[in-house]
């Protein structure tokens, strides 16, 4: 055991796995604040419209947070294997490890975790990010200088610009188009919320359908990577292959949900337009509204005098007889 507790001060420390992506955390916190703000004013809404209003706000915020957050996730495509592989370059020592590849719109995330974690007198638990939104080659060179384990460098090398696999161009450009389309869907979501708060509910339905359509277009754009031959990534005796991850399927569900909501609004506008207006107006249609005015007091002296109509010079005398 060294003076520095097994940490060598003249070498960079190994990067430990992150707990949560900072950009995702910011997006989720912003939408949580919006949700709490709307829930605070919920008690001020009377009648049966309160529950529907709350359901509409929560559902709309869910669609919004998904369309924004998936732009910063790293699990649009994922791959995972368990294998025995060499740990360092120019060494025959092997380790039993779990290797993961996670692909997002802005780069890849490679994980390496030993099974068990402590092997070869080292803690094998890595989580490395390589972003092609900046300079991917520079990130790869820095990884070489840091002496990262051989499996991480091998996978990262497959995504370099000079690699014959061409994985960088497949994932980078499909991710760029998918991200741009997803941001367009977010803009459509904003417009639909504005239209739903105005007496043009039908156009809000059209825009929420458009939101779902752009989300589907984003998925189609990203899915084009499977239409080209995939480069084999072999580690030990196992090949690493990627499949669609959680962000892809969550976006698919959200897109279908938007289309169903918009279709329901359009059909209700055609067949039952009055009930549609009641649903989107919190206070309309409540039977209790008529019970708030229980008494009315008349000013006798005012009613006995001549009153002037606002639209002309005609003076009308209103006789009033009061019984005592």
Automatic annotation (TrEMBL):
Protein family (similarity comment): Belongs to the DUOXA family.
Cleaved signal peptide residues: none
Keyword vocabulary terms for this entry: Glycoprotein, Membrane, Transmembrane, Transmembrane helix
Membrane topology label: Multi-pass membrane protein
Subcellular location per the Swiss-Prot or TrEMBL entry: Membrane
Name of the molecule in the record: Dual oxidase maturation factor 1-like
Main localization of the protein described in the UniProt heading: membrane
Domain of life: Eukaryota
Organism: Huso huso (Beluga)
Transmembrane segments: 18-41, 53-72, 177-196, 203-228, 248-272
């Amino acid at each position: 055991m060294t003076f520095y507790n097994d940490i060598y001060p003249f070498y960079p420390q190994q990067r430990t796995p992150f707990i949560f992506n900072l950009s995702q955390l910011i997006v989720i916190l912003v939408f949580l604040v919006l949700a709490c703000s709307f829930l605070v004013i919920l008690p001020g809404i009377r009648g049966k419209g309160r529950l529907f209003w709350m359901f509409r706000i929560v559902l709309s915020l869910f669609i919004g947070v998904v369309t924004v957050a998936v732009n910063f996730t790293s699990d649009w495509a994922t791959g995972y294997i368990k294998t025995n592989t060499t740990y360092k370059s120019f060494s025959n020592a092997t380790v039993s490890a779990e290797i993961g590849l996670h692909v997002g719109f802005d780069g890849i995330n490679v994980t390496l975790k030993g099974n068990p974690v402590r092997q070869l007198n080292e803690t094998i638990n890595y989580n490395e990010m390589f972003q092609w939104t900046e300079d991917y080659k520079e990130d790869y060179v820095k990884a070489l200088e840091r002496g990262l384990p051989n499996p991480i460098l091998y996978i990262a090398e497959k995504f370099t610009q000079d690699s014959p696999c061409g994985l960088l161009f497949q994932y980078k450009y499909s991710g760029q188009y998918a991200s741009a389309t997803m941001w367009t869907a977010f803009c459509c979501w904003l417009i639909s919320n504005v239209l739903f708060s105005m007496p043009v509910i039908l156009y809000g339905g059209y825009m929420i359908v458009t939101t779902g359509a752009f989300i589907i277009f984003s998925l189609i754009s990203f899915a084009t990577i499977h239409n080209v031959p995939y480069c084999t990534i072999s580690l030990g005796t196992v090949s690493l292959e990627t499949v669609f991850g959680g962000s892809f399927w969550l976006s698919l569900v959200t897109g279908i949900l938007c289309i169903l909501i918009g279709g329901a609004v359009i059909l209700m506008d055609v067949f039952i337009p009055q009930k549609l207006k009641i649903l989107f107006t919190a206070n309309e249609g409540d039977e209790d509204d008529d019970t708030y005015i229980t008494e009315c007091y008349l000013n006798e002296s005012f009613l006995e005098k001549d009153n002037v109509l606002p639209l002309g010079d005609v003076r009308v005398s209103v006789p009033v007889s009061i019984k005592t």
